UniProtKB/TrEMBL annotation:
One Pfam family in the UniProt entry: Baseplate_J_M
UniProt-recorded name of the protein: Baseplate J protein
Domain Baseplate J-like C-terminal: 266-349
Source species of the chain: Paenibacillus monticola
Entries under InterPro entries matching the protein: Baseplate_J-like_C, Baseplate_J_M, Phage_Baseplate_Assmbl_Protein
Protein family (similarity comment): Belongs to the Mu gp47/PBSX XkdT family.
Sequence ranges assigned to domain Baseplate J-like central in this UniProt record: 182-259
Domain of life: Bacteria
């Protein structure tokens, strides 16, 4: 808004107010006296422009974004802790119960047993909030002595932990809420209810999927992967624990079924021409990372996987000069996804 209010413009305007006949050249007393004031005013306009942007949801950041949208009731999501399945065994290889609250370590993180799921099987919670708790699988070491315990392991990620919601994600939730009002049990209301559960990364709603007054909600976790049974159960309990009875968020008479999205595995293969000095395995690993970033951005919003987009991602991989024979699931062309499916990449194999 104030981009044209530069030091030069301000100084020139100030000098224009000086009566004719007085020395206004650079180095003169008047010029040297007015220059610092012009510099300070130019800085003031810069700060005024920045502060102006902090008052609107489309340009505000950090605390100012939270304050801009506070009226809507939408708040920044705090970091959440990963929930994992832990298995524990005695020296005979039989499943062993451990005390609730027992603490275990793996690599640099600690986990606590918070719920017994079945004999010898527990829900563990990472003591560290954020995505770091999602990364480690394998043998657990008890922090304190537990009688008869021979070994323990993390077997599966139940509900991914998530970092503090960033500005862009918070801004997008606000815009979605404003553009698609959730009210009176409409379609968007079910989406909003599902997304309120920690660990849910996306939801799709299918009205009348099994006849009148039936609603199906398909969800993915915060890693944009098919939701676990535990996460599905949490969403079901929140929205409609007793079908049609109105005991949850859903109105009386609405029978809600919550289900995980189905993973659609897509394999990618191609022959590539490498730039001098690049190794195929390194390039293949980099391409996998690019595909994973693309998957997290598009997985639950995509209705098909474009071969040309995958080709563009391949060309953007460092070390790839060109490619031929690009195949998705062994064929040439796009791969369709239905509304209940979420994109997952399987084998990624590049050749030279």
């Amino acid at each position: 808004m104030y981009e044209d209010q530069t030091f030069e413009v301000l100084l020139e305007r100030m000098l224009d107010r000086v009566p004719e006949g007085m020395d206004k050249r650079e180095g003169s007393i008047l010029y040297d006296a007015l220059s610092p004031a012009a510099a300070e005013m130019a800085q003031m306009y810069i700060e005024l422009d920045v502060n102006n942007n902090l008052n609107f949801a489309d340009t505000a950041t950090g605390e100012y974004l939270e304050r801009c949208i506070a009226w809507s009731g939408i708040q920044r999501r705090p970091a959440s802790k990963a929930q994992l399945r832990g298995l524990f065994y005695n020296s005979s290889g039989e499943l062993l119960d451990v005390p609730l609250g027992s603490r275990f370590s793996l690599e640099l993180l600690n986990y606590k047993a918070v719920e017994k799921l079945s004999p010898g099987t527990y829900r563990l919670e990472s003591e560290t909030a954020g995505v770091d708790g999602n990364r480690y699988f394998g043998a657990l070491l008890p922090v304190d002595y537990i009688p008869e315990l021979a070994r323990g392991e993390i077997a599966a990620l139940l509900i991914p932990g998530d970092d503090v919601e960033d500005d862009e994600a918070l801004r997008q939730r606000y815009f979605d809420s404003a553009r698609r009002p959730a009210t009176s049990g409409n379609k968007y209301h079910y989406m909003e209810w599902a997304l309120k559960i920690v660990g849910v990364g996306g939801a799709r709603v299918f009205p009348l999927w099994n006849g009148p007054k039936t609603v199906k909600v398909i969800i993915v976790d915060s890693e944009i992967l098919p939701a676990s049974e535990l996460l599905v159960s949490k969403v079901q309990q929140y929205i409609d624990p007793l079908p049609g009875q109105g005991e949850g968020q859903a109105p009386v008479g609405a029978v809600v079924t919550v289900a995980p999205a189905a993973g659609k595995n897509i394999s990618v293969s191609a022959k590539v021409t490498l730039a001098p000095g690049y190794v195929l395995q390194t390039v293949n690993d980099q391409f996998k990372g690019i595909l994973e970033n693309y998957r997290k951005q598009k997985a639950f919003a995509a209705t098909y996987v474009s071969q040309s987009v995958i080709g563009a991602l391949l060309l953007s991989t460092e070390g790839v000069v060109d490619y031929t024979e690009l195949r998705l699931n062994g064929g040439a062309g796009n791969v369709l996804l239905n509304e209940a499916e979420v994109l997952m990449f399987g084998i990624v194999a590049l050749e030279v």
